[in-house]
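Quick log. Single chain, no ligands specified.
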Amino acid sequence: MTTLTQHAEQLSTTTLLRFATAGSVDDGKSTLVGRLLHDSKSVLTDQLEAVEHASRSRGQEAPDLALLTDGLRAEREQGITIDVAYRYFATPRRRFILADTPGHVQYTRNMVTGASTAELAVVLVDARNGVVEQTRRHAAVAALLRVPHVVLAVNKMDLVEYAEPVFAAIAEEFTAYAASLGVPEITAIPISALAGDNVVEPSAHMDWYGGPTVLEHLETVPVSHDLTACHARFPVQYVIRPQTAEHPDYRGYAGQIAAGAFRVGEAVTVLPSGRTSTIAGIDALGESVDIAWAPQSVTIRLADDIDISRGDLIAPADDAPAVTRDVDATVCHVADQPLAVGQRVLLKHTTRTVKAIVKDIPSRLALDDLSQHPAPGQLVANDIGRVVVRTAEPLALDAYADSRRTGSFLLIDPADGTTLSAGMAGASFAAAAEPEAAADDAEWDF
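-> predicted structure:
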């Protein structure tokens, strides 16, 4: 029991990193993930025995570590990744939530799902093939989703005799491309997931590389969960009015703080109405507190009786977002049915869902060369494009660059509730980094 208690205390003091893996088919994503889990002692004995048994039944002498993540039967039979596989593991230094995403072009939408909440993306490249179209596609998706850290894992270095020039050429090409998209931090690591080189333990075959292993980088990359520095936003989920003898006049607005912090006595604006008031009290876990911050779930009480309902947004009076009915955004279309100009949809933003119509689709983005195809008329599955949506009611929408929480939305089919597109309000890509800094060989720690 003491060991379990100590383990629980240790986990409570470590930080959490959400990261996603991406890459072309057969680049070794699932093998890398399996190697991470295996070598970091994060695999249960019965799981490893099942993998060893499955590997032997397929005529393989060594256990196929990719089977640790490919959970669907079709994935195991075909040797590919189809769905997003989430894995949870921990080391003494950090806890991890990993999303292993598919490599096929037709599953680009799955990569969007896996990377939408990630703070880091690991993009794999086969050292024999170098940067290919799908590599650029995944770098572009990571940039669109504002993933702050990108790791280029040049895999299968054992098949190119651990040659430094091969790695250097691939790292330079990818770094320049990702930096042009505005990716703020790019780290290149030469690895062999199959042999375990530079995954958890340093490689004995690449003494020319002096940088971190994949796990070391994952454990030490700066992760900022300080949402209190962001614009404060509180989407209302539920209005609490007990109207009991004990609480005859209680009126509270419950929800999860999306970003920032709120304090008792602070002047706030309720959107989209624009009415203003002051925070009279904040209740958290049954107790009154003076301050609350993201991502706490709390109940906020205001000094004035204002007509507030689910979907309204409470924000600081001096830092409230603009209210609009015209949404200009980039969307990734995830449904099999197309999204067309003139189509009626539902737009879900935080806790608010409103009717809307697709007024225009100005362009579709070709992720291989970042060219814009004007006026496509519609978007099909896995397409990424610009859309202009007109909503029936005003929305308090932030730019996605300012807030991934309150700058994102979903377009939904009103007929059956199917999610059509995932949207990001505002500009597509961040400002490009300086080319000199992006291509600096010193970042690779040669």
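The longest helix spans residues 164-180.
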